[in-house]
Amino acid sequence: MNELIGKILIGIGVGFDFFGALGLVRLPDVYNRLQAATKCVTIGTCFILVGAGVAVGTSGLVVTSLLCAAFVLVTSPVGAHALARGSHKGGVPLWEGSVMDKYEDDIDRVEHKEHDPSKVAYGSEESS
Predict the structure, then answer these.
(1) In this structure, is residue 72 part of a structural domain?
(2) CATH code where residue 83 lies
(3) 14/72 Cα distance (integer angstroms)
(4) Domain that holds residue 7
């Protein structure tokens, strides 16, 4: 029974990894591709690791697979954020169909001293 559950989890993980890889090929710019790689591949890899631990069933492998999954869950988004920030600072353009650039808005607000903690904390735009 554990082997069947493990194979199902591994199959789900392979599906997520497949769609993440498809997103890397099909999406238009580096930021969209990073999103596909971060979300799909992270979840897919975690499913594969947990599925392998469940399929084998030894306590050592289960603990190791859970630790590896936790490591992937922590490091993958951090790495993707670093790559996206470096790309943005390096001038890699957004796809022309992108609607907004929230990161640029945040940078402009901080650089132009529009940052007022009282306004940001409550989200109000009242002038004093």
Answers:
(1) yes
(2) 1.10.287
(3) 16
(4) 2-94
Within-domain flag for 67: yes
| Tokens matching residue 81 | 């954020």
SS (H, E, C) the chain: CHHHHHHHHHHHHHHHHHHHHHHHHHCCCHHHHHHHHHHHHHHHHHHHHHHHHHHHCCHHHHHHHHHHHHHHHHHHHHHHHHHHHHHHHCCCCCCCCCCCCHHHHHHHHHHCCCCCHHHHHHCCCCCC
Asked if residue 82 lies in contact with residue 48, where contact means CB atoms within 8 angstroms, the answer is no
Judge whether 76 lies within some domain: yes
Domain presence at residue 86: yes
Which pLDDT belongs to residue 37? 84
* pLDDT for residue 114: 54
How many domains does the chain fold into? Answer: 1
Mean pLDDT for back-to-back runs of 10 residues, the chain (128 residues): 93 94 88 86 94 91 93 92 84 75 68 57 50
pTM of structure: 0.73
